[in-house]
Design a protein that fits this description.
The complex is a heterodimer of chains A (404) and B (256). In chain A, 50% of the residues lie in helices and 14% in strands. Chain A has twelve helices and ten strands. Chain B has one domain: HUPs (Rossmann fold, 3-Layer(aba) Sandwich). Chain B has seven helices and 13 strands. The mean pLDDT of chain B is 92. The chains are: A alpha+beta (404), B alpha/beta (256).
């Protein structure tokens, strides 16, 4: 068993850390207060190649492995969750789905510009009335000759108002025994006639990010924009979540680290009763729990990343990594506030932002309750992951790094 | 244009310096490429992007100095060379300059040898001038911008008094200040190239030079005495009273 990150992994980690420390952290509080996304974030992440980190070079990416994707997400969310959210939707939920399920034509048309960062991408599954209960969705796609006509509304969509492409899941058939089998996935260019998008304000956290909605009214898309087979939408969506949740779990690990580092610094700077507060055992206990959470969360997501590299199905392990890390990131941020005392309650310090940012990930991409059901289901033998028609390809450095 | 850029591995700028038994100690601080050298690599890369050519990164040191070279490769340098030899231990600045000059000659056809303005550990900031002296080349120090480069080079020097434009024939040496522009991050493709790079190792015998004799030796290293800082909150009934008390204290302390 080799726990050593490669030289490339460490260099990728350092590069992204340098970027966030120089260009993100100095101003993130202002953007969070303004509830606006720094307009430099997306173009800069694109320019630096971060958006296509684990996509093969032949498809416009940087050709690194899935562990690198996790390390990048950890670094980004240690700065601010909004940057990791970009990776979750653009890369994890959308680009990796194209890599897994797309035809060669779809990869060339959509994946290449996304991996290069020339086009931004998002993912539309949730609707105003359908979250965890995916099959309750109302949005439809009706076949009309060589086209589909899309109608419906997608809600809580990160980058809805910034993206060029959305991967949306809609109902193509009611005439099925299991409503999950009536769903299909489509690549939707968001400049098509009948598409409207907007932002949602007043969120508790991820305030420096873009979260919004997509409305589709009689939107016509060519049949070749359908990803996978008709009726395969639910399976595709769940496979997308295997990748999205991986980025969320890795990112939440970074948030734990940020809470830990802030707490350690403050505990050594702040004095009370004649000594630095880090000398008090109850402060030490909080820090010890953060260390425990960070190390465990990190091992969990790195195992999931390793399994992706090997081409092994990792739904169970990714779910566990996401569930554990997001719950632990909320606890760590809350305790970081406690370590900071009254200052932790102020936005002059970071922990209150960490806490607000952490809560979203406990809800999206499978609530903690959904993950508990999944884990119990695996343990009790009620749940089994069937084979997919298209599995996420194992990381093959020769294939990934070669030019087309 | 062929450029040799010199980089050094140094303790992180956040490291705490102490003296233990007469020896400098940086604690367990991570070692990083000297921050000023990143500006030098940036300058070298920017010049070759504009005028064509190649950048050869060079470092003197042990095996770990490869870290600095790999950083330079990941930023976009074409090649890297590590000069490593047991005899390098105890080298003074003039001796290091002789070694660096020999490296420039062995690389061959170098138009410009580029340095950061200093290294944050030893901080003497003389390498560019000393290497120029050994090679008999002009030395351009504290360069903030290059206006043109061909058979000659025209640069802007950044000084406390302002800017100075100077022209020099090539080859030359040049030290770079941060006004040149923020160094680029290593690219992902560069990171991969660097991780696969086989960095050649040159010894002093490969360079064809004898071990330079150190003219300067360190007789003693002292850590600066710790400053005792105390805080005092001045109280008073009004801002005027507080200000008057503060002024009295400043005068009493001899600050004014």
């Amino acid at each position: 068993m080799d726990f050593q990150l490669s030289e490339e992994h460490l260099a990728v980690q350092k590069m992204v850390r340098d970027y966030t420390h120089k260009e993100v952290i100095p101003t993130i509080k202002e953007w969070d207060r303004k509830q606006e996304m720094d307009p430099n974030i997306l173009p800069r992440m694109a320019e630096l190649g971060i958006l296509g980190i684990n996509i093969p070079v032949r498809y416009g990416g940087q050709g690194f492995d899935y562990i690198s994707l996790g390390l990048v997400c950890e670094e980004l969310e240690a700065a601010d969750s909004t940057l990791r959210v970009v990776m979750s939707v653009h890369t994890g939920l959308n680009s990796m789905a194209l890599l897994q399920w797309g035809t060669e034509e779809q990869k060339q048309k959509f994946l290449v510009p996304q991996a290069r960062g020339e086009k931004y991408a998002c993912f539309g599954l949730t609707e105003p009335g359908a979250g965890s209960d995916v099959a309750a969705m109302k949005g439809t796609a009706k076949r009309d000759g060589d086209e589909y006509v899309l109608n419906g509304e997608k809600m809580w969509i990160s980058l809805a108002s910034k993206a060029h492409h959305a991967l949306v899941v809609l109902r193509t058939s009611d005439d099925v025994e299991d409503p999950h089998d009536g769903l299909s996935a489509f690549i939707l260019e968001l400049d098509r006639k009948g598409v409207k998008t907007g932002d949602i304000h007043g969120k508790m956290g991820v305030r420096a990010g873009s979260t919004g909605w997509i409305s589709m009214t009689d939107v016509r898309v060519p049949a070749e924009n359908r990803l996978g087979e008709e009726g395969e939408g639910f399976k595709i969506a769940m496979s997308c979540l295997d990748n999205g949740r991986y980025t969320v779990g890795a990112g939440a690990t970074g948030l734990i680290r940020a809470s830990l580092e802030a707490s350690v610094k403050y505990a050594k700077d702040r004095n009370a009763f004649g000594r630095e507060i880090g000398r008090f055992q109850l402060i030490q206990q909080k820090i010890a729990y953060m260390v425990q959470s960070y190390e465990a969360a990190r091992l969990l997501y790195l195992r999931a990343g390793w399994m992706k590299n090997q081409g092994q199905r990792n739904t169970r392990e990714t779910s566990l990594a996401k569930w554990f890390a997001t719950d632990a990131s909320f606890d760590a941020a809350s305790e970081a506030i406690q370590v900071h005392g009254a200052y932790g309650y102020s936005d002059e310090y970071d922990p209150e932002r960490y806490l607000r940012n952490s809560k979203g990930a406990v809800i999206y991409e499978g609530t903690s309750e959904i993950h508990q059901l999944m884990q119990a289901g695996y343990a009790l033998g009620y749940r089994d992951d069937g084979e997919l028609r298209c599995e996420l390809p194992a990381y093959d450095p020769d294939f990934w790094q070669a030019e087309a | 244009m062929k450029i040799a850029v010199f980089v050094k591995l140094v303790p992180d700028s956040a490291a705490t310096f102490t003296v233990d038994n007469g020896q400098p100690n940086w604690g367990d601080a991570p070692l990083v490429i000297n921050p000023w050298d990143e500006y030098a690599v940036e300058a070298a890369l920017a010049l070759t992007e504009e005028h064509g050519g190649e950048v050869v990164a060079v470092s003197l040191g042990g095996e770990n100095a490869k870290e600095a070279l790999k950083h330079a490769l990941a930023m976009g340098s074409s090649e890297a060379v590590l000069v490593s030899d047991d005899a390098l231990a105890g080298l003074d600045a003039a001796g290091a300059a002789r070694v660096m000059a020999a490296v420039v000659q062995k690389i061959g056809d170098v138009d410009l040898a580029v340095f950061g303005k200093s290294s944050i550990d030893s901080d003497h900031g003389m390498s560019s001038a000393m290497v120029a002296r050994v090679l008999g080349w002009p030395s351009l120090s504290l360069v903030a911008a290059v206006q043109s480069a061909g058979d000659t080079i025209t640069v802007e020097r950044s000084m406390e008094e302002g800017r100075q434009v100077v022209e020099s024939p090539l080859p030359a040496t040049m030290s770079v200040v941060k006004d040149f522009g923020e160094p680029r991050y290593p690219s992902f493709m560069g990171i991969r190239k660097a991780s696969k790079a086989e960095i050649p190792l040159w010894s002093l015998s490969d360079l064809g030079i004898e071990v330079p004799t150190a003219a300067v030796t360190r007789s003693e290293i002292m850590a600066p005495p710790k400053r005792e800082v105390t805080n005092e909150i001045i109280k008073g009934g009004s801002p005027e009273e507080i200000a008057a008390t503060l002024a009295d204290k400043i005068i009493a302390e001899g600050v004014l």
